[in-house]
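R.M. (postdoc): so does anyone remember the format we settled on? I'll just put the structure tokens first.
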């Protein structure tokens, strides 16, 4: 019988009586989420975001999850997390039934609560349990059998129960700062330096107090475009043709990976402004308006992105300080180079020409959001990456004044203080002829969109400035009334898709009236977003994106909605 079935008989029901506003939270609780170890956490519903590091493994057998971290090398950890809205004033509880096999360091076998202000990491060691490295401890034998560990945090307090007995009453001891302001529940083998092995019967947590759910924009209609179990559908494009047809292409991957495209892609069409969708006829080609030249040819420039090669070539790229990553056994991918592609037959065939670029460590493309053809005919594209001496990353600009015959390459934006990694960049021309760039910045130092503006068609750009818009990455669209729309993924609870409007051409954004399109995302914050919007009729917008809900199926969806009147 598992600990889930035995719970009703645990002594914790009476161990800590409820006091001030239900604190401390002893006894049974209304659990926000329960993981019962019937499948791997990344396959559960709701799924847990997984970090599956090198030389680690996880398996499920007869209702028990085994997590093994056999290495102390960098990157060797295996942990699972939910990004949750824990209010530091109201608190949260996490409980797990664990039998430790071995653990030799802090955050090896652990559970963690981070409330955005502080974080408490309960580590299970062979001879004790400890809150954080230098915090309260309780001496016990943890390897003899399964034990139920419960930890609760609220304000500056942290409490720990073992098998229903309050063993740590840490009033004022919840003081460890939350790393990068993270707000989450996690468990597993969470430290590279630690070697550990443990059996997990269940994990569950409760977020205490009432949490306000953001209100979705009135009248929003959500549409599922493509959703298949065991398919990781991601990175949709969106193009509206002259007859109004909407077309999207997206990945249909067999692995939850941003590098490995195995599984292919699909193309779907809508002839009713996004309300219904069907698979495109074989051979259908999506042509972006920004590719068209006055002579009828098509031209597009950008980075190659991840290029796959046999794993034995890894050293070849590492010796040149080129970014290289594992894809799957026997295959690695590297980031290097850019090209321009031209077609004179409507996109049926393309000719490719390598662009001569300065030496760089990496260069990556974004979605069609990075491409913009100005009213003057100047073409811009904004790949991102890093130069040889960059510790972090930067946004670049490819620019052509002659319909793609020749291109210049320069930096669009880099953090002058060297603290924030800047990368995926959205471009749009406003009604003044300026080009606005909204640039993703990476947590932990980042998370807000940065903005840069050019008044000379992309030759020079203003220094990047942090906006008040938290979320990433972005897409920009100039609406029929001249306002600028910025849609973006929102990768913290309540995860989903959001938007802001600008009435001054993208110089400032009305964050006081942030528009929520979706607030039901789940799991890994990286498994949603990349929105693209089109104005299908004056005052009606269709926004496409990919998202993961509580069932764990990452899919392509869209929202039909009306921006508030100017």
């Amino acid at each position: 019988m598992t600990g889930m079935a035995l719970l009703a008989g645990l002594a914790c029901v009476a161990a800590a009586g409820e006091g001030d506003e239900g604190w401390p939270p002893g006894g049974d609780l209304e659990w926000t989420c329960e993981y019962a170890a019937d499948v791997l956490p990344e396959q559960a519903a709701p799924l847990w975001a997984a970090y599956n590091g090198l030389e680690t493994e996880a398996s499920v057998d007869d209702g028990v999850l085994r997590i093994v971290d056999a290495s102390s090398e960098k990157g060797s950890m295996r942990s699972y997390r939910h990004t949750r809205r824990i209010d530091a004033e109201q608190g949260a509880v996490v409980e797990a039934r664990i039998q430790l096999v071995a653990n030799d360091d802090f955050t090896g076998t652990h559970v963690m609560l981070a409330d955005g202000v502080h974080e408490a990491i309960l580590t299970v060691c062979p001879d004790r349990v400890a809150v954080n490295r230098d915090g309260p401890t309780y001496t016990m034998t943890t390897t003899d059998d399964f034990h139920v560990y419960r930890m609760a945090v609220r304000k500056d307090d942290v409490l720990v129960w073992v098998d229903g007995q309050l063993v740590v009453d840490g009033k004022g001891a919840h003081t460890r700062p939350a790393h990068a302001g993270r707000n989450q529940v996690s468990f597993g083998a969470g430290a590279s330096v630690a070697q550990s092995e443990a059996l997990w019967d269940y994990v569950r947590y409760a977020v205490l107090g009432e949490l306000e759910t953001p209100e979705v924009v009135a009248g929003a209609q959500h549409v599922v475009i493509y959703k298949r179990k065991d398919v990781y559908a991601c990175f949709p494009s969106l193009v509206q043709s002259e007859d109004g047809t909407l077309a999207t292409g997206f990945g249909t991957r067999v692995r939850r990976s941003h590098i490995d495209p195995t599984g292919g892609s699909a193309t779907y069409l809508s002839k009713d402004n996004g309300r219904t969708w069907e698979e495109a006829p074989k051979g259908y080609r999506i042509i972006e308006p920004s590719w068209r030249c006055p002579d009828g040819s098509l031209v597009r420039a950008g980075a190659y992105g991840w290029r796959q090669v046999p794993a034995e070539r890894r050293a070849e790229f590492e010796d040149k300080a080129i970014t290289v990553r594992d894809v799957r056994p026997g295959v690695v991918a590297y980031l290097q180079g850019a090209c321009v592609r031209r077609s004179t037959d409507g996109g049926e065939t393309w000719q490719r020409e390598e662009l001569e670029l300065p030496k760089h460590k990496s260069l990556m493309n974004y979605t069609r959001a990075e491409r913009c053809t100005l009213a003057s005919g100047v073409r811009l594209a904004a790949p991102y990456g890093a130069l040889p001496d960059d510790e972090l990353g930067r946004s670049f600009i490819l620019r052509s004044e002659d319909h793609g015959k020749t291109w210049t390459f320069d930096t669009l934006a880099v953090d002058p203080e060297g603290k924030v990694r800047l990368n995926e960049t959205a471009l749009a021309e406003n009604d003044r002829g300026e080009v606005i760039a909204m640039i993703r910045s990476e947590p932990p130092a980042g998370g807000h969109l940065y903005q840069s503006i050019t008044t000379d068609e992309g030759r020079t750009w203003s220094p990047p400035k942090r906006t008040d818009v938290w979320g990433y990455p972005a897409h920009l669209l100039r609406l029929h009334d001249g306002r600028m729309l910025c849609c973006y993924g929102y990768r913290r609870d309540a995860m989903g898709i959001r938007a802001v409007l600008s009435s001054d051409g993208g110089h400032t954004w009305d964050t006081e009236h942030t528009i929520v399109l979706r607030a039901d995302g789940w799991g890994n914050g990286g498994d949603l977003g990349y929105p693209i919007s089109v104005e299908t009729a004056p005052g009606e917008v269709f926004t496409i994106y990919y998202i993961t809900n509580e069932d764990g199926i990452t899919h392509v969806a869209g929202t039909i909605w009306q921006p508030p009147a100017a």
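R.M.: ...and that's the designed sequence above, right after the tokens. Also worth knowing: The chain has three helices and 44 strands. Residues 3-207 form a domain with the Jelly Rolls fold (CATH 2.60.120.200).
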